[in-house]
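Lecture notes, unit on binding sites. The following record was shown on slide 14. It pairs a sequence with pyridoxal-5'-phosphate.
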Amino acid sequence: MKDETKCLHAGYTPKNTEPRVVPIVQSTTYVYDSTADVAAVFDDPTKSLIYSRFENPTVMAIEDKIAALEGGVGAMCTSSGQAATLMSILNICKSGESIVASSQIYGGSVNLLAYTFKKLNIECIFVDPDASEEELSKAIKPNTKAVIGETIANPALSVLDIEKFARVAHKHNIPLIVDNTFATPVLCKPFEFGADIVIHSTSKYMDGHAVQVGGVIVDSGNFDWTNGNFPEFTEPDESYHGIRYVETYGKAAYIIKARMQLMRDFGCYPAAHSAFLLNMGLETLAVRMKQYCENALTVAKFFKESDKIESVTYPGLEGDKYYELGKKYLKGASGVIAIVIKGGKEKAIKFMDSLKLASNEVHVADIRTCVLHPAGETHRQLTEEQLKAAGINPGLVRFSVGLENIEDILDDIKQALAQI
Ligand SMILES: Cc1ncc(COP(=O)(O)O)c(C=O)c1O
């Protein structure tokens, strides 16, 4: 199946008289014929359902769909993108160890990796994603367990050189985790370029309609967990009758371990209803992504021509710093554009407040055009100096192009620019 077809059909094939649409299984528990049946499920939880804190038929259908779209051996949904980032790392990294992260990642991920992980005694070493392989290699320590980056970074909109990062990680026998939220598997399949684990905030394009917060972890099944660096995959798990994950589950060891240990213990699994809503978004993901890209490229070109705009960042725009990498890794540059308005913060705010169609939202990748002013909103606690250090220009506006008619989007921008 091609992506458009997978979006509609992967993960759920109804049998005779069963519902056409993935049904919502609104039940925390499942019934067994005997205590022996329950015991057998505890011996091997992958054989049947135990409890909706870590598995549910509605959610599992969506997990299979996302795994099919990414080309992985399995996926596990989480209650948010943050939970996916957290668990993708904790599945392979513990206190006293470290990870290496691209410095250009989502601010919430920076908080998690730099500050909260520090409290868990996990060090995060940040690297410039444009650094050479030698420089990246130098950042990796003997206790480093993973490298992480974003396909299209939020909000920097830099494109990750996935092959370069994968080569460096693999040279050190550790996996590459890629946050593919902005690209989605429709625009980029990181496993094809050597990534080992993919994570998403499904709250963004996958959902698209802004109706559920969620995340997902997808396992490529390609990483060799028996290379000596990851004894938790080869040694018996005391918390699960001494199961050895690679021996028992082979290529799906990572994702099954994540569910059996971390989801069991942390319990950040989505509700069935959230997964149902996510599926509604996924069904049209492939067609939506094409239109986001087309609309955004038109808007980016318009901004580029405007004398009220100081700079435009959009990897799909010829001349953009990441245009060439984008051509290599992306089938489109998604719908998010960063612009700097001439005249700084005051003019940026005036522009945003003058928009009539586009809405002010702490969100991105919505089906409706929306804007955010990092200096005045998400990063408003920072001083001028701190904003500078974080690379946030006071005039920066993150413009998330939606699926309205392109002429309406442009008319709205034109009238708002005319106000400044
Ligand atoms: C690239 C990226 N990763 C992860 C997250 C966190 O996702 P969530 O808000 O679903 O927890 C976000 C949120 O904006 C994001 O943009």
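Take-home: The first strand starts at residue 74 and ends at 78.
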